């Protein structure tokens, strides 16, 4: 064989082609084949050999042509066999490519068939020779005619036939139909291929998309990965082996995303197509497409579009979810909800598999959501939402999602941590005008989740500290609370903070100095001095449990003590500053003492020396406190300088806590440090003496001693009045603190309680004067100053007043119980504390910041208030009825309502715990589960309401009934709509609504809204609406009869709005579905079944609603708000009917379906029942406007002239809007009639509302009157022409 090969090579190198031809002719086909095979396998001179054979085989001769074909037919399988070296195979294919165009048509056809057959049976092993196939097809398409088989085909036709039997690549020129066919075929192949082969195929498809079918290619790729993700999820739930490893799938997805982004960069048409597909509906999104969108966002021209698109999708998804959750009708109709938020969080999770191109987009998206949906500043820059509340509205949920995305990304991706941290801190520093709670929460979460990582970026945190004295106080507090765990493990950070705080101490800004106090107090709480009592380790605001560092090994206790004492000496300077700064200090000392009891002597000395400045040591002098130094004057203005009551309060609480600790410590250990004991004994006994002397002398002091008697001036307009107001508040505060101190100290002794009542009577007298005086001024509303009693004390006080049955305490407690004003005061302070907790999330005084303790107090208060309300009938309190204020029972109810609301907002998971605490206090702990307990209380409140309603109407207490309804609606939120109790609750509410006939607007409104809120979670409220509308119609009578009160109709109308919202949402949803079905027409058949259900529901809802409105339109509603609202609702109903008609026009155009008979009935109902009644109602409304209620109007014409004219303008606008809506509806019905070939207009009557209207009956009556009074025909004529004028008012 070698000889033949050498001969061919040598001859080909020579000039004599004829000799070469002759030699080749002498070789048989088999010999030729073995020459090529041998040289190819050895890899020697194969290129030259093949070139030689081509040279000696002229394409124009039959022999030469056949020999060329033979080489092709042999070389292709040889290259695919895998026995050749890759370079050799590549060389051979290269040579064959160059010579393809010389082959004859029939040879090309044979060769193409060879390829097709080999591909079909799967012989294309390495796929190397496939590079030759496009070249063969291109050459084939250029052939004029092919004598192939028995017939003749053009090259183009033959190529089509081949493509039909196989899919080709981008190098072949294709028509649009061929391209579409090809794309569909390749996409169908995806599922059959191995996962690793997908990215190259995606790449090829994207190159192909340059010729068209862009949407098809993108949708196909995205749907493939969407299905893979779903499959992966289902498999991960099964514990069997997964068919595709997760990491492999994610890596393939990552590569595919890179390919697509690359293609979008080069082809902007592709980018536009990609974004367009998500603009209409977010339902098509999936984690893969979210990741793809975020990657595309890195291309600058798409950035804004992508984030706007995602923002819209997220907010719409949350809104839709809210709508579905709030309506049983929608839940039954549509199963499941596609949550965009979950997709985004899945994308974050998936991005851990090396999706670096997605992470940047995730960070941007997170901050974009936080910035866009974060809390907005309220009036005067105050934050409107507390950070403790649960995210309820769609915007709050979107903001929370932004935080979650950033937190998860921070945990997973190291490279972006620095950037996230920097951006969060920058926003904390720069956004001083708007609330930054959401950034603080995120920063706090980051610190807790990765404290050690944060230490690497501690320079950024230190930099933020430098700006601290310029930041709002709330931001500083949040920031310090968040970095607290870091201070324990980083010396440098702690030192930096102390430096900044010291500077801030001397800041010219008041907020700066307050920040310094906050910071120092926080440090004191958290750097324990060794030997502090065990109880000081109370719950910390931010847990630092995952920082495994023993504080005392890093800082020894001596250093800690020196450090704390140094801070205390800094804080003492604050005692000479403004009242606000001092106030912060007094409020913080108690917590410091509880956590760091070794600092007791320093703190107590500080408070003691401060208190002595304002205490009158001379025992015979009254009053015992000096009020003069507590105020300061600046020009004409007078300011509070020393919050004396808070100072006394702080001292008392610290003293009582230390005494408790010492008692428990003495019980535990007898021997202790004598010296310290003596020192403590010293200032404790001094303080006790001062407090006792103050109590004694404050009881003796008359109001004249403080210059605060009835003749004193309290108007805030004069400086004397301001001074007296400040004095009064201080004195009342001191009385309150002394009451608390004496109660605790009394240990239930009767004489001490009598002193306490003395103190209270002084307090009460002063508060009454203050109320009375401030009521006279120009500003009538007087806010009671916040009570200084602690939450724990108020809780104990109401418990002993109402529930304590211990025999030995009976006599002493009767002193307190017999004083009705004192009992009332105790309950009102409880209500005030709960209100503060509801609004801010914490209360003043000790333990106010500790959520666990606060919740414990709430539980105690609830059981007491509940007992007081249910066990003492309100008949006992009838004596107080004559007064204008609310009864004790009512106060208890208000307290309960506030507690339940607060618990739902602040402690959503603890509601059952709260109720069971009440239960155990009640003593019938028969129910274990939460729903049962809840329903037990619901029944108690139902009983109370029933008692109210069954009494006589004059005994009915509207305020109490409203409170009961509010409590029922709060408690009913805890019931599951599927539970039996929920159904019982609805049945009861319906019964009450039907049986109650009290004319009390506010109560009826509350009861009806409770009914609707329950009903909407049980089933659609349209049937209920219909009943109510019929009821209103029967109550108020027809258009030409008398009227009654109109509050309930307004409520019913607002419910109409709710139903319309749902219907509108459903139609919009169907429209977008139809649009997407039109694009991918394959799906239309599948959704036909489901489509029917939604359309049927929409038609039924609208049908019932039309019947209900038909009742209202015939009702004599009062002119005014009610009529306008009805007119507006009617025009909205017609607008939505128009939308439905447009939807059917769309359906008829795209799918040529027949109109459902239900829809025809709906059109008939609207045309025969509602529209004519609407027109008569318009006439009625206009007559009410211009002539109705004449007698009343004459009386009040002057007062309400301007208001009336504005109102008329508003009313007359509602009427044309309604007429326009009706006419639009009829216009589109005409279009639908043409499209569907069904005559829908047969039910419509021509409108007369634009014509002159002459009411014949009125005219006759008027004419007869004229006849009776005047016989003259002339005057009759003039009257005749004038009368219609009054009636033919146009809109």
From TrEMBL:
<dbReference type="GO" id="GO:0070182">
    <property type="term" value="F:DNA polymerase binding"/>
</dbReference>
<dbReference type="Pfam" id="PF14675">
    <property type="entry name" value="FANCI_S1"/>
</dbReference>
<feature type="domain" description="FANCI solenoid 3">
    <location>
        <begin position="788"/>
        <end position="1011"/>
    </location>
</feature>
<feature type="domain" description="FANCI solenoid 2">
    <location>
        <begin position="358"/>
        <end position="521"/>
    </location>
</feature>
<feature type="domain" description="FANCI solenoid 4">
    <location>
        <begin position="1025"/>
        <end position="1260"/>
    </location>
</feature>
<dbReference type="Pfam" id="PF14676">
    <property type="entry name" value="FANCI_S2"/>
</dbReference>
<dbReference type="Pfam" id="PF14677">
    <property type="entry name" value="FANCI_S3"/>
</dbReference>
<dbReference type="Pfam" id="PF14680">
    <property type="entry name" value="FANCI_HD2"/>
</dbReference>
<dbReference type="InterPro" id="IPR029313">
    <property type="entry name" value="FANCI_S3"/>
</dbReference>
<protein>
    <submittedName>
        <fullName>FA complementation group I</fullName>
    </submittedName>
</protein>
<dbReference type="InterPro" id="IPR029315">
    <property type="entry name" value="FANCI_S2"/>
</dbReference>
<feature type="region of interest" description="Disordered">
    <location>
        <begin position="1263"/>
        <end position="1291"/>
    </location>
</feature>
<dbReference type="InterPro" id="IPR029305">
    <property type="entry name" value="FANCI_S1-cap"/>
</dbReference>
<dbReference type="InterPro" id="IPR029308">
    <property type="entry name" value="FANCI_S1"/>
</dbReference>
<feature type="domain" description="FANCI solenoid 1">
    <location>
        <begin position="66"/>
        <end position="264"/>
    </location>
</feature>
<dbReference type="InterPro" id="IPR029310">
    <property type="entry name" value="FANCI_HD1"/>
</dbReference>
<feature type="domain" description="FANCI helical">
    <location>
        <begin position="535"/>
        <end position="771"/>
    </location>
</feature>
<dbReference type="Pfam" id="PF14674">
    <property type="entry name" value="FANCI_S1-cap"/>
</dbReference>
<dbReference type="InterPro" id="IPR029312">
    <property type="entry name" value="FANCI_HD2"/>
</dbReference>
<dbReference type="InterPro" id="IPR026171">
    <property type="entry name" value="FANCI"/>
</dbReference>
<feature type="domain" description="FANCI solenoid 1 cap">
    <location>
        <begin position="5"/>
        <end position="56"/>
    </location>
</feature>
<dbReference type="Pfam" id="PF14679">
    <property type="entry name" value="FANCI_HD1"/>
</dbReference>
<feature type="domain" description="FANCI helical">
    <location>
        <begin position="269"/>
        <end position="350"/>
    </location>
</feature>
<dbReference type="Pfam" id="PF14678">
    <property type="entry name" value="FANCI_S4"/>
</dbReference>
<dbReference type="GO" id="GO:0006281">
    <property type="term" value="P:DNA repair"/>
</dbReference>
<dbReference type="InterPro" id="IPR029314">
    <property type="entry name" value="FANCI_S4"/>
</dbReference>
């Amino acid at each position: 064989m070698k000889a033949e090969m050498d001969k061919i090579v040598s001859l080909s190198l020579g000039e004599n082609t004829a000799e070469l031809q002759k030699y080749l002719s002498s070789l048989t086909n088999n010999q030729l084949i073995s020459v090529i095979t041998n040289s190819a396998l050895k890899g020697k001179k194969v290129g030259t050999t093949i070139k030689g054979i081509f040279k000696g085989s002229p394409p124009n001769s039959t022999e030469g042509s056949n020999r060329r074909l033979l080489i092709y037919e042999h070389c292709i399988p040889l290259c695919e066999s895998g026995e050749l070296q890759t370079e050799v195979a590549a060389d051979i294919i290269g040579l064959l490519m160059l010579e393809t165009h010389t082959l004859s048509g029939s040879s090309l056809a044979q060769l193409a068939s060879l390829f097709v057959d080999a591909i079909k049976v799967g012989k294309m092993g390495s796929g190397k020779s496939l590079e030759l196939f496009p070249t063969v097809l291109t050459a084939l398409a250029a052939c004029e005619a092919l004598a192939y088989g028995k017939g003749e085909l053009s090259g183009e036709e033959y190529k089509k036939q081949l493509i039909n039997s196989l899919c080709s690549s981008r190098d072949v020129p294709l028509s649009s139909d061929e391209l579409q066919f090809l794309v569909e075929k390749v996409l169908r192949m995806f599922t059959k291929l191995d996962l690793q082969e997908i990215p190259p195929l995606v790449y090829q498809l994207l190159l192909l998309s340059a010729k068209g079918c862009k949407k098809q290619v993108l949708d196909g790729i995205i749907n493939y990965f969407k299905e893979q993700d779903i499959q992966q999820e289902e498999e991960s739930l099964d514990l069997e082996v997964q068919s595709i490893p997760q990491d492999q799938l994610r890596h393939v997805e990552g590569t595919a995303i890179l390919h697509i982004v690359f293609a979008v960069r080069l082809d902007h048409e592709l980018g536009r197509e990609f974004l367009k597909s998500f603009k209409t509906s977010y339902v098509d999104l999936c984690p893969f497409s979210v990741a793809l969108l975020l990657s595309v966002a890195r291309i600058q021209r798409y950035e804004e579009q992508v984030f706007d698109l995602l923002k819209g999708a997220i907010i719409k998804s949350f809104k839709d979810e809210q709508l579905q959750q709030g309506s049983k009708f929608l839940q039954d109709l549509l199963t499941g909800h596609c949550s965009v938020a979950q997709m985004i969080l899945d994308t974050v999770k998936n991005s851990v598999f090396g999706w670096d191109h997605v992470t940047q987009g995730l960070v941007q998206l997170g901050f974009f959501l936080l910035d866009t949906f974060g809390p907005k500043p309220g009036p005067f820059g105050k934050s409107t939402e507390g950070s403790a509340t649960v995210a309820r509205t769609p915007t709050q949920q979107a903001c929370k999602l932004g935080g979650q995305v950033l937190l998860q990304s921070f945990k997973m991706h190291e490279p972006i941590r620095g950037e996230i941290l920097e951006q969060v801190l920058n926003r904390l520093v720069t956004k001083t005008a708007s609330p930054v709670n959401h950034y603080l929460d995120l920063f706090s979460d980051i610190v807790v989740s990765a404290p050690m990582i944060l230490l690497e970026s501690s320079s950024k945190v230190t930099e933020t500290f430098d700006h601290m004295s310029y930041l709002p106080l709330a931001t500083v507090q949040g920031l310090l609370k968040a970095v607290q765990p870091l201070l324990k493990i980083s010396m440098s950070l702690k030192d930096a903070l102390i430096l900044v705080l010291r500077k801030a101490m001397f800041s010219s800004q008041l907020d700066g100095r307050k920040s310094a106090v906050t910071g120092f107090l926080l440090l004191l709480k958290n750097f324990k001095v060794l030997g502090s009592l065990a109880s000081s380790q109370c719950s910390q605001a931010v847990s630092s449990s995952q920082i495994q560092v023993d504080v005392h090994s890093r800082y020894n206790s001596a250093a800690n003590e020196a450090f704390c004492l140094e801070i205390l000496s800094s804080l003492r300077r604050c005692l000479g500053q403004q009242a606000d700064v001092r106030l912060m200090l007094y409020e913080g000392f108690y917590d410091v003492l509880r956590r760091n009891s070794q600092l007791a002597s320093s703190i107590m000395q500080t408070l003691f020396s401060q208190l002595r400045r304002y205490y009158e040591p001379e025992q015979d002098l009254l009053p015992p406190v000096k009020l003069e130094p507590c105020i300061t004057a600046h020009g004409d203005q007078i300011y509070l300088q020393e919050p004396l009551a808070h100072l006394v309060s702080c001292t008392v609480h610290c003293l009582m806590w230390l005494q408790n600790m010492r008692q428990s410590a003495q019980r535990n250990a007898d021997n202790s440090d004598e010296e310290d004991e003596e020192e403590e004994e010293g200032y404790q006994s001094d303080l006790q003496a001062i407090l006792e002397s103050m109590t004694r002398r404050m009881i003796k002091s008359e109001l004249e001693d403080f210059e605060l008697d009835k003749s004193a001036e309290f108007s805030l307009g004069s400086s004397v009045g301001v001074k007296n107001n400040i004095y009064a508040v201080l004195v009342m505060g001191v009385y309150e603190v002394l009451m608390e101190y004496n109660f605790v100290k009394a240990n239930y002794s009767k004489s001490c309680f009598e002193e306490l009542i003395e103190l209270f009577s002084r307090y009460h007298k002063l508060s009454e004067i203050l109320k009375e005086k401030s009521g006279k001024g120009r500003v009538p509303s007087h806010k009671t100053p916040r009570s200084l009693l602690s939450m724990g004390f108020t809780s104990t006080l109401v418990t002993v007043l109402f529930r304590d049955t211990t025999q030995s305490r009976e006599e002493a407690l009767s002193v307190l119980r017999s004083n009705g004003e004192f009992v009332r005061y105790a309950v009102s302070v409880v209500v005030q504390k709960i209100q503060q907790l509801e609004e801010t999330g914490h209360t003043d005084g000790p333990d106010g910041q500790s959520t666990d303790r606060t919740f414990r107090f709430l539980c105690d208060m609830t059981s007491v208030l509940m007992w007081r309300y249910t066990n003492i009938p309100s008949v006992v309190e009838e004596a107080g009825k004559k007064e204008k204020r609310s009864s004790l029972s009512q106060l208890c109810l208000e307290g309960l309502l506030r507690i339940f609301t607060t618990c739902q907002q602040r402690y959503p998971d603890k509601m059952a715990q709260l109720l069971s605490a009440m239960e155990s206090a009640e003593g019938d702990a028969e129910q274990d589960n939460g729903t049962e307990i809840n329903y037990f209380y619901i029944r108690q409140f139902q009983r109370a309401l029933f008692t109210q309603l069954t009494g006589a109407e004059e005994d009915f207490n509207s305020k109490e009934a409203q409170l009961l309804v509010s409590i029922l609606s709060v408690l009913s939120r805890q019931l599951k709509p599927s539970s039996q109790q929920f159904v019982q609750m609805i049945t009861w509410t319906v019964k009450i609504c039907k049986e109650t006939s009290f004319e009390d607007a506010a109560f009826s409104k509350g009861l009806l809204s409770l009914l609707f809120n329950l009903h909407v979670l049980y089933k659609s409220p349209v049937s209920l609406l219909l009943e109510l509308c019929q009821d209103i119609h029967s109550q108020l009578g027809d258009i030409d009869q008398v009227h009654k009160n109109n509050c309930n109709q307004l409520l019913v109308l607002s419910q109409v709005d709710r139903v319309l919202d749902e219907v509108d949402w459903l139609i919009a949803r169907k429209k977008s579905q139809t649009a997407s079905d039109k694009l991918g027409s394959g799906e239309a058949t599948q959704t036909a079944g489901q489509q029917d259900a939604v359309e049927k529901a929409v038609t039924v809802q609208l049908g019932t609603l039309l019947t209900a409105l038909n009742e209202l339109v015939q009702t004599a509603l009062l002119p005014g708000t009610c009529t306008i609202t009805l007119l507006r609702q009617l025009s909205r109903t017609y607008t939505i009917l128009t939308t439905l008609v447009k939807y059917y026009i769309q359906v008829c155009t795209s799918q040529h379906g027949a109109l459902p008979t239900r829809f025809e009935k709906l059109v008939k109902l609207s045309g025969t029942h509602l529209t004519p009644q609407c027109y008569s109602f318009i006439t009625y409304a206009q007559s009410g406007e211009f002539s109705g209620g004449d007698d009343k109007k004459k009386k009040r014409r002057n007062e309400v002239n301007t208001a009336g004219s504005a109102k008329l303008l508003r009313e007359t606008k509602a009427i044309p809007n309604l007429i326009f809506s009706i006419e639009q509806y009829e216009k589109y019905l005409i279009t639908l009639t043409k499209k569907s070939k069904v005559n829908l207009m047969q039910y419509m009557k021509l409108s007369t509302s634009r014509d002159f209207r002459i009411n014949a009956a009125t005219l006759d009556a008027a004419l007869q009157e004229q006849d009776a009074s005047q016989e003259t025909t002339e005057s009759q004529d003039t009257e005749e022409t004038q009368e219609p004028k009054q009636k033919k008012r146009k809109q």
